[in-house]
User: Fold this.
Amino acid sequence: MSEDITEILKSWPFDGQNNVRKIVDTNGVEKIQVRIEQGAFQGILQMDLDGRPDGRRPYDKEFVLDHFREKLVGSQNNKSTIEKFLLSREDCREIFDESFTVYERYVFLLQIKDYDRVVRDTERNMEVFRFVKEYGAHREDRQHLERWWPYILRIHYVARVMLEVQENKFSVALRLISEAEGKIENLEEVDSEEFHNERDRSRQALKDLAQEVRDKMPLDPKEALKRALDQAVKREEYEKAAVLRDQLRDLD
Assistant:
């Protein structure tokens, strides 16, 4: 098999607006591919859609987090263990590295609107946040991910909202947005520029999303007539506007 990927690159020209796709490999495993082009460099990034993005099984587990959870349970069940279970710097580094690859994947999954998997991946990374905060031996490690809570909550809820919108459950979608806003407002303050910037971005993004959802909601007859009347007046279609006013009066 040739190691040259020229033909693959030719068959998928770079397009900044359409640079992510799903494929199925020869073993039937779904993967995500990202077409990249940086100066003279051209290539394709590839990761698994399920399990770890790199397809590996650390410690014969699906995720390295699963390994450390198992160690935690083992220490809790071992009555002879005196020392509290804690994550070393090296342990945390392993967990951080893995969670970053999951983050990279859900960013691309959001781009291709695979919302179910975005929910799954953000839930997993939020579990990482909580686990490290609880069991990290060093304060720096315990605080390392806390600054990203506004961002991950936003992405998690955006995916959940879009799943409801796809089912035309607009009221549920708006309730989820309100829930997300509440959780972000109630986050414990973190002394970090990233935290404050992401909180501000998330506030605005959720506000914009709520408006998008409201715009998609079907109008009741009266609201539809009001909008049609506004448009008629703007276009100086006065005869049409008069008819619409009469129809509105009939509804009152």
